[in-house]
Amino acid sequence: MALVRELVTEQWVNRAESPRPAGARRVCYLSMEFLPGRLLVYTLQKLGLYESCRRTLAEHGLDLDTIAELEADPALGNGGLGRLAACLLDSMANLGLPAYGYGIRYDCGLFAQHIEDGWQIERPDRWLFHGNPWEIPRRELLYSVKFGGRVVEGSGDVVPRREWIAAEEVLATAYDIPVLGYQSQRLNTLRLWSPRAAHELDLRSFNDGDHGGAFSRRNAIESLSQILYPSDATPAGRELRFKQEFFFVSASVQDILRRFQRIDCSLDRLPEEMVIQINDTHPSLAIAELMRLLVDVHHLEWERAWNITRRSFAYTNHTLMPEALEVWPVRFFETLLPRHLQIIYEINDWFLREVAWRRPGDSAILRRVSLVDEEGERRIRMAHLAIIGSQRVNGVSKAHTNLMKQTTFADFQALYPGKFVNVTNGITFRRWLHEANPDLVGLIRSRIGDRWLTQPDDLAALAPHAEDPVFRAAFRAIKRENKKRMAAIIARECGVTVDIDSLFDVQIKRIHEYKRQLLSLLHVVALYNRFRTGTAAAPTPRTAIFAGKAAPGYAMAKLVVKLIHDVADVVNSDPAVGGLLKVVFIPDYSVRKAQNIIPAADLSEQISTAGHEASGTGNMKLALNGALTIGTLDGANIEIREAVGIENFFAFGASIEEAVALRANGHDAWACYHGDADLKDTLDLIASGHFSPSRPDLFQPIVDMLTKGGDSYLVLADFSSYLRCQERVEALYRDPDEWARRAILNVAGVCGFSSDRAVRQYAELVWKTDVDPNVPAIFEMVAPNVFAAAE
Ligand code: 26Q
């Protein structure tokens, strides 16, 4: 690993900073989350050294894949949002775009998931325990980040200046991780911040004998990067999350300004040289922080600073669920960021005056668009700050962007037409096909070569080969081998033997009610019930594979994990089933596990309640590896279905419009229950305690939520449609050759969902840069031993 790292960083050594390509802005991608995956094999592949390295090691009796297993998988993210950040960075490097990723070097990533008696148990993820061979500490990059205190009126030449007298100071120091382009010369940087005490120990307190106090202040500082917050975090501990967000954006914005000032001295040119992309609202305090630095430190007038700021930022929205839109209590700002609160109020004043002028007499719109939510406890609406402070706002699929424009942010769309654009998500094929599925890559290469690794649209050329029976047979053999490998992992991790010729039915993602793991589980129970009652006619053998983490504070999601396990225990051992149906839960889902599971999948479950999944990216990864999708018309599913052909995609359930109407008119869960015998039997069986004999009412909260609770995610509403659709799936699976034909058409058809395409669209619609993969490589960064020249 050390050797490979040297090979990469050698490239850093050899280049000094050069100008950016004509028209290109340097991209600064700010994200609280990154899920880069392991780097050893991936880096060797990018350098074109994988095969030779493998052979050489084998000659010495060593197995590269065994060595690769020792590497930690950085879990610095919850799911799709963090992995998207990694895919986009990969593609920027591949396309020769100068980019920095900015994030936090969490000491512990997302918790490690253990299962005890079917319950999820969280343990700390100590990914840095053995060190991280890929990171380069940049000790000379140190920024001061301040909190608390008060603001005083200072003396200004023309207007009075405000001075923030902070109470607390923390230093942020950088750790750089290389982001290498595929066989390209480009080497970008993922810069992760870690806190350090400004004064090694609070010496005065220490000498006064207050040892505990001195250490507890130090602990408070270190806690800034101690853990990554789970996506459905409860309000407890939210203040620390707020501090984390500010810590990371303050260091990042200071670093961006420092880098910019090495290039140009007129701050007015910042938006021409750089673009700061914020990954959801989590880094949106950066807008207020840039304003503070420009106005308070660089003494720019307000309007000039605002003009620079809003042309420098762009914001990607990843959710419209009201409970997931970030709002921060004003009291957090009062105690921790008093100067930023003033700045936000001033931005709001300017903004609301503009709106009042454009919409005279409409006071309701002022209340709706204000940065301040005045109802109940006063809170700052971070999405509004992000929209106002950005040049562009993008959604992550066509459906999501339309919803954004038509519902949640309709007022802003009316005020700023043209600000909202769509960039449908994508994935890097180099990770999700080339590294994850080498045998399939070999087969594809034998027919169409491998230019698709850098020109993903070329994968479309695979489509005609779907009509070739020889190719189909080879494709099936590879899928079978992948399933065999997966079966071995299942046997090892779950202690369950599965039939590799059964339909591998895969649902892998964060556990959340809107993603509806429950819907596929109810289907499994309905199938099981038919075995039990002897009414299963010619069933297609099926293995239902689940993986994913539930946020620790999300009781319903954790109960679903328990239900999956309890159903698995009963179904897997009931002789009436005869091994024709198996259920497994693969613990501790990660990028690494995704790379193992995805190549083995036959069926991809993408069954969110329509209108809830902004895009989904697992849907793309599974289709790319030759799984057929069963999915709702939600997020990117809609575009994937059109791209692969509607006949090659199993769609079911209420559409976005239908889901809205169902809710508006009051969805009648009880009518669904009484109207479908399978559904009634299924829910009754769960409610009877069949899967939890020692605690018969254990799953009552789930049954109640679906029935008495009104079934907010429309599980019962979509159940019948889902069951009928699954019957069509089974019928097709009984014709393996036709199944393979359609699977191949999925591989070819999904070629447009690469993150290379997404990055080109960002460049065109959001960053306004010229991206030319053939531009000579330009390096901004050099190795640590030539720091003087480094950015
Ligand atoms: C917020 C506040 C406090 C603590 C945690 C959070 C938090 C953290 C992570 C909220 C949300 C997330 C993650 C969201 C996420 O992964 N969203 C997914 O983003 C993908 C990439 O665009 C989409 O494909 C998915 O549809 C979307 O769910």
Describe the 3D structure.
The chain has 791 residues and is α/β, with parallel strands linked by helices. The strands form five sheets. A nine-stranded mixed sheet has the order 5-8-9-2-1-10-11-15-16, with helices on both faces. Strands 19-18-17-20-21-22 form a six-stranded parallel sheet, with helices on both faces. α10 crosses α13 and α21 (517-532) packs across α30. The longest helix has 26 residues, at 238-263. The model is unreliable at 14-18 and 770-791 (pLDDT under 50). The structure holds ligand 26Q. Ligand 26Q binds next to α5.
Brief overview:
With 791 residues, this protein is an alpha/beta fold. The protein contains 32 helices and 22 strands. The relative contact order is 0.12.
Task: For the record, give the distance between the C-alpha atoms at the N and C termini, rounded to a whole number.
Answer: 26 Å
Could you tell me the mean pLDDT? Answer: 93
Number of helical regions: 32
* Strand fraction: 5-15%
Q: How much is the radius of gyration in Å?
A: 27 Å
Helix coverage percent:
40-55%
Low-confidence stretches: 14-18, 770-791
What strand order characterises the main sheet? 5-8-9-2-1-10-11-15-16
Please state the overall shape, judged from the principal axes of the Cα atoms.
globular
